[in-house]
Amino acid sequence: MRQSSRPCGRLAPSPTGHIHLGNAWAFLLAWLAARSQDGQIVMRLEDIDPQRSRPEYATHLLEDLRWLGLDWDYGPDVGGPAGPYTQSDRGEVYASALKQLEEAGMTYPCFCTRKELRQLAAAPHIDDAGAPYPGTCRNLNEEQIQDMIRNGRRASIRLRCPQSPISFDDMLLGPQTFSLADCGGDFALCRSDGVVAYQLAVAVDDALMGVNQVVRGRDILPSTPRQIALLQLLSYGAPSYAHVPLLLDEEGERLAKRHNSLSLRYLREQGVDPNRIVGLLGMLAGLEVSSRAINPGELLPAFAWSRLPRQDVRIENSHLRALLQ
């Protein structure tokens, strides 16, 4: 799918649980960013983790987002020119990209076990991907590699990260520059069990699906230089990026799928008007002065990057009580 000057955003949920208000917040802002510029939306199911992804969650999240008032032009339920739009069906695409990187000498096998990697947990974590990788297997020679294989060790595949810094202009946060060492060093492209890693799948999918505008939570910011590096190595252009603040609970904790009372599925089952949810999120985003019931399309004239908060936003218990009244 060719890149276009017309924005093409994406909604990329993982079907590992029910969508909560924090997910809805990020998806609504991504939808508004594209639709406010007459752009298109891709829906992509990021279900590459076979241990955590569930078909019923995939079904529910599509239903719940449509109930909220969001729509998309391409996706697993509507088709499109760059499908399939479910990552578990895109194994050949990722294998081709991985082969291209291997042939360019940009990968190496890593025999570190999960236990060995967990021992790095005392080091500061970069993000949800875990602790920085110290390059233990980076310079193994062929004899050492074959010894590992003979001893029954299974290898993941890591990227031999380029040294040059990665710079981009975040639409919300402004100019950003990172070295890949800042982002954890050489990162995994494929697990030892053959499951493709998040960074490779997302970068390749954004490129092939024509996504040129990525709006997501600021917790994903350290992933962006990694994905830009992969796009450059694979000779693709990078999208524009905006990393929005997170929605927190009243105690200041990031919303997660354990917050079942804040899931769209729960609120829907309680008979909550979806327009009241949109109105609340619009108010928290600075696009509305009150949390009046409003559909996503009515927020489009108010959307502007300059109006969005730069700091994480708390959703108070009083907000939830008001929704449930």
Automatic annotation (TrEMBL):
A motif ('HIGH' region) lies at residues 13-23. It is an enzyme of class 6 (ligase). ATP binds at K257. L-glutamate binds at R10, L11, A12, P13, S14, E46, Y198, R216. It comes from the Bacteria. A motif ('KMSKS' region) lies at residues 254-258. Gene3D superfamilies: HUPs. Residues 10-282 form the Glutamyl/glutaminyl-tRNA synthetase class Ib catalytic domain. Pfam families: tRNA-synt_1c. Zn(2+) binds at C110, C112, Y133, C137. This is Glutamyl-Q tRNA(Asp) synthetase. It comes from Desulfovibrio intestinalis.
